[in-house]
Task: inverse folding
């Protein structure tokens, strides 16, 4: 997989390191001269491209024609949006992820602007705080850009009514899908016959209406 990251600040460099550690080929585009040398030290001169992420020539130099994903994470919403639009509609990049810096601009991050996934850090943090206050066991990890869905995590405590029951008997709502059961160091793909144990952590995809029901299912009785 080839990924182009626009913006080599703290967010961009962190994403780049994480992707490299997972064997993904990356290019980082950065326009600020004082950051370019540091990025070259941390990555390499082959990875770092000096220039603007909104310049088609710079994008071509970074190999956008063969890129699978473009990640626009500069601190300027206008740059992230323009880069997303160019990547999607001029170069046909399959997946475009863009950072929202100012929540008031989130409405602009749409498919018509070339954005597949908008990451609004302020919004995610706010929802996590509210969800932690409202929900005893369930915490939101990420709000998705499509529909009213979230990726969430449920902690199974001692005394939970779900303990020692198979998943098929829990009455999971239709608009909720269990993704994985994390048990000690093990990742378990959930099946109908998978039994829930104390101290399990369960990753799930759910809509807002199903969250309260999920919290009830895993609550301590």
Result:
């Amino acid at each position: 997989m080839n990924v182009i990251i626009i913006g080599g600040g703290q967010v961009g460099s962190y994403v780049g390191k994480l992707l490299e550690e997972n064997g993904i080929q990356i290019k980082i585009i950065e326009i600020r001269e004082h950051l370019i040398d540091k990025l070259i030290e941390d990555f390499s001169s082959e990875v770092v491209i000096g220039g603007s992420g909104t310049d088609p020539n710079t994008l071509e130099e970074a190999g956008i024609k063969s890129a699978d994903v473009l990640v626009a994470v500069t601190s300027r919403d206008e740059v992230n949006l323009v880069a997303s639009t160019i990547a999607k509609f001029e170069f046909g990049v399959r997946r475009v992820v863009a950072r929202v810096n100012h929540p008031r601009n989130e409405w602009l991050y749409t498919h018509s602007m070339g954005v597949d996934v908008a990451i609004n850090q302020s919004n995610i943090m706010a929802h996590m705080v509210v969800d932690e206050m409202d929900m005893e066991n369930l915490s939101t990890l990420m709000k998705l850009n499509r529909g009213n869905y979230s990726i969430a995590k449920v902690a199974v405590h001692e005394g939970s009514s779900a303990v020692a029951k198979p998943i098929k008997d829990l009455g999971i709502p239709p608009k909720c899908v269990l993704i994985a059961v994390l048990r000690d160091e093990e990742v378990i793909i959930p099946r109908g016959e998978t039994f829930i144990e104390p101290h399990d952590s369960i990753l799930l995809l759910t809509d807002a209406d199903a969250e309260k029901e999920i919290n009830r299912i895993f609550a301590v009785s």
Observations:
- The mean pLDDT is 88.
